[in-house]
Structure prediction request, 85 residues.
Amino acid sequence: MRELLTDWRVLIALICGISFLVYLSSDRGRYSSGTFHGYSCTKDCSGHKAGYAWAERKGITDPDDCGGKSQSFIKGCRAYAEELF
Prediction:
C-alpha cells in the first residue's frame, strides 16, 4: 500500500509539471494581462496577436517591415520580428 501511495504522488507531480510546461508554451505564457511580448496593450491584446500572426505567416524578419494603420498591429508584428534576433 505504501508503494502505491508513493507512485500516485510521483504521478501527480509529473502531471503538474507537464501542465506547467504546456502553460509556458501556450499564448498565456507569452503575455500577461496588459502586455504582449513586452509591449503594453489593452483588454485582450487582439491587435497585437493579429500583427504577430500576420508577421509569422509572412515571414517578417525586420521590425522596420511592419506597417499598417493600427499601432497595436504594428507592435505585434514588431514583437514577432524582434523575437528572431
